What we know:
The complex is a heterodimer of chains A (72) and B (414).
Chain A (H helix, E strand, L loop, with lengths): L3 E4 L9 H5 L4 E3 L5 E3 L8 H10 L5 E5 L2 E3 L3
Antiparallel strand pairs in A: 1-4, 2-3, 4-5
Chain B lengths: L19 E4 L2 H9 L3 E3 L6 H4 L8 H12 L4 H26 L1 E3 H17 L8 H18 L8 H35 L10 H7 L1 H4 L3 H36 L6 H4 L1 H14 L5 E6 L3 E2 L5 E2 L4 E5 H4 L3 H4 L33 H5 L16 H11 L3 E2 L6 E2 L8 E3 L1 E3 L2
Parallel strand pairs in B: 1-7
Antiparallel strand pairs in B: 2-4, 3-11, 4-7, 5-6, 8-11, 9-10
Amino acid sequence: MSYRVEIDRDVCISSGRCVADRPDLFRFDDEELAEPVPGATLPADAALLDLARTCPSGALRLFDGEVEIDAG
Amino acid sequence: MEEPAVTAVAAEEAAPEHRTVVLSTFADAKDAYRSKDLRQSLYDEGEVVMADVLVNLHGEEHRSRRRVENRMFRREVFERYERDLFPAVTDATIAPYVAAGRVDLVHLGHELMLNLAALTAGVDRPEGTAEETERLYAYMMSFIEGATLAHSTKDKAVQRGVIAQALDDWDAEFLAPSIARRRDLLAREAAGEDVEVPRDVLATLLRHADELTLAPEVIRREVAFFLLAGAHTSATAFVRAIDHILGWIDEHPEDAAAAVDDPLFVQRCIHETVRLNPSSPTGRRRALAPVSLRSGIDIPEGATVVIDLQAVNRDVTLFGADAADFNPRRTLPPGVAPFGLSFAAGMHVCIGQDLAAGVVQRADTDPGSHLFGLVTGAVQQMFAAGTRRDPDNPPRRDAATARPYWGSYPVLLG
């Protein structure tokens, strides 16, 4: 099963790194915070882990079912 | 795996607010940087310049300002700077020194990065004269001294007065006219006129003035901070990178051509330089509440956390047995940036990271569309200009600070 992605809005600092790296997966909402693009096809888990690791604030969180993945 | 290094100064008997926890592993450092209960405290002694500036804010106040300012620090803006604006400024700055055949890299680095930082911060130089730039340079150097006052070897009380006066004078000469010009442009834009408002920090702050409600003295310090931070960190990286590359070429002459014509190689050199020489050798935070790191380290409320970036960035388990050496050809494990944690992480991750150092390369990076960062471009231009050490004038360290800065680095060109 593929990972599920959530953006923690209380943690996001709007660095825009996820939006710049994968505009097909993320965009800015009205408050300039990142949000997943609805209906986007997620890449393989390894690519999602890479994205989560490069999120500077740790706002990009991954879940395997209900269990959060520690991206490091 | 190394044991997490925890140093509790005067440990058990000390009150929590007097305890210091030193973190020296990559995982602990990243964890600490991302904790919302650890507040920035690196610039406590530099408040004459740093009070209420972005990098010193916390919580909602920080998020609000960063959200606004981040709009100016988007990758498409950086691309415009890197491709359209910076090359001409770099050429014009370096040209007289190439003609003279020599330059002190420390001065050139700050002059060049000042020219670039003035564009991003939003500080106009209407006269466009060398004398005007020299005055702005002197103000900037004073602000740098203010921000790093904790490491100054001078009388700090005296320096605070000198730096406060410099802020007043700079405001009158440079900032106030820059504000007036942008307010006028914004008003005309609001009235429907077709005008071009600069995309810089000052214009961004003024555009969102109602949302941010910043006092004039905060705007003043914020713009001064972006001027000094943008110029100083890039200038020190510029000098250090050239020093490292000259040393690398001594040992690896086969890479001499790459320093001139391979920007991907030069960017790896910049990242390696920044890893080995973080702008500040330590990060510093204060615990607003008890914090438990994933490794099991407990940080009591009130304690000071010192992140030992020299140790973190030279962790042999991540960077290899030669972690303490300069090696732009090294390979890295997944999830570890080539510059380590020199740009920090979490809420205070460097806002200008991609502007200064570019985007981290991947296996499929296309040099034609890649963002290399302004330091890469400047260093590559220096090697294209024939930079080599001056055998009669060896470099020397800066004695005015405990930080490991070069005070003078003469080189020959051409």
